[in-house]
Amino acid sequence: MAEPRKLRMGMVGGGPGAFIGPVHRIAAELDGKCELVAGAFSQSPERSREAGASFGVDPARAYANYGEMIATERTRADGIDFVVIATPNHLHLPVAVAALEAGIPVMSDKPATATYDEALELESSVRKSGLPYGLTHTYAGYAMVREARSMCAAGKLGAIRKVAVEYFQGWLSRPVETTGHKQAEWRADPERSGPGGAIGDIGTHAFHLLEYISGLQVTAINATLRTVVAGRKLDDDCSAFVRLSNGAAGTLACSQVAAGELNEVRLRIYGETGSLEWRQQDPNRLIVKWLEGPEEIHHAAAPYLSADARAVARVPPGHPEGYLEAFAVLYREFAGALMAWKDGAVNPLPSTLPGIEAGVRGMRFIDRVIASSRSERWVEF
Ligand SMILES: NC(=O)c1ccc[n+]([C@@H]2O[C@H](COP(=O)([O-])OP(=O)(O)OC[C@H]3O[C@@H](n4cnc5c(N)ncnc54)[C@H](O)[C@@H]3O)[C@@H](O)[C@H]2O)c1
């Protein structure tokens, strides 16, 4: 058995002013299973050192770049157990491959890479290494997403006939990428974001949620991409029809120019005898509607939920858990998988935790949406 201790993590990205880096740090440490000990937090060595100091990292382990971090940490007796990737998309592949080749597991933010070809390369690197690779599709960590998934898997709605998923934000309604806005700037740059704008940034989450909850796969897609804000280099709005592996149909829409929306992720699934509705801005409730029965509201942490949903609750019903806790569920599962792997388990990631397969499908989604929108036709997935 591996010694019981916190898993040591080395972070790439997440420097001063970053959005998701701090979320990773809080989430990783929430359940007491991981600790931040090293990082290359910024492309600027100076800012990386400053960031390391502010996070309480040993100055010798706040590195100038990720190459130095991986090369040094792999030789330390107390070296990092895994690398966290919280940089813009174009760095996801090189950092992940460098870590895997050094024998270090990876927890990456989405999208898995910048392009579909890169995702295939990463997939081969992950398979070759045999190392755990987790992908932080945040919404997979919510208790009521797990409940919706369990209900679909158990056939509680009957055969699924229709799926509707939306992810709407309004923060890119103006060309804020030209005003020095840190997060908008790289997202609107194809060199750093990849070929997908809104579809890569938030469409991949919507797509993942659709397949994750329904248990179905998208087999064909007919999408319209638009760039609503003049001068923007990538899409900021997408409307798509999808066909699913059981013959069902659905819609997937995402937009970052939906003025007034904050982070409106909403999913509805309709089966033969009932339906589900979940919204991330009201995450502790799942609305269940029956063809021949009253509408129900199911609450997170309630004793009547499925084992998968109950397993992720930390506090009793009525005590809300949210974004950080959902993110932390993914870290808790990743840490468990890593410990199992250290003890010799092969492919230790639980099916509830997104990994390389979800990463490749997400990148395929971007590729297919662009192909469909350009050709103005249905494309096979
Ligand atoms: N899971 C989610 O819900 C979620 C939410 C937001 C962002 N993301 C993803 O997280 C990633 C980062 O997004 P963000 O909004 O935090 O971006 P951000 O611009 O706020 O942060 C990026 C960080 O990476 C650092 N960085 C850039 N180049 C680097 C390099 N060469 N070496 C080390 N650090 C470097 C920057 O200095 C910055 O600290 C993206 O891939 C994004 O898609 C995921």
Structural features:
single chain; 14 strands; binds nicotinamide-adenine-dinucleotide; 381 residues; Dihydrodipicolinate Reductase, domain 2; Rossmann fold; alpha/beta; 12 helices; five-stranded parallel beta sheet
Description:
With 381 residues, this protein is of the alpha/beta class. The chain has a nine-stranded mixed β-sheet with strand order 13-12-11-10-6-9-8-7-14. Strands 2-1-3-4-5 form a five-stranded parallel β-sheet, sandwiched between helices. It has twelve helices and 14 strands. 50% of the residues are buried. The chain starts with 6 loop residues before the first strand and ends with a strand. α1 packs across α11. α1 links the parallel β1 and β2. The structure holds nicotinamide-adenine-dinucleotide. Nicotinamide-adenine-dinucleotide binds next to β1, α1 and α7.
Which helices and strands appear, and what pairs or packs with what?
Layout: E1 7-13, H1 20-30, E2 34-40, H2 45-54, H3 66-73, E3 82-86, H4 92-101, E4 106-108, H5 116-129, E5 133-135, H6 143-153, E6 160-168, H7 182-187, H8 190-193, H9 198-214, E7 218-226, E8 237-244, E9 249-255, E10 264-271, E11 274-279, E12 285-290, E13 293-299, H10 307-311, H11 323-342, H12 356-375, E14 379-380
Parallel strand pairs: 1-2, 1-3, 3-4, 4-5, 6-9
Antiparallel strand pairs: 6-10, 7-8, 7-14, 8-9, 10-11, 11-12, 12-13
Helix pairs in contact: 1-11, 4-5, 5-12, 6-9, 9-12
The structure holds nicotinamide-adenine-dinucleotide (NAD).
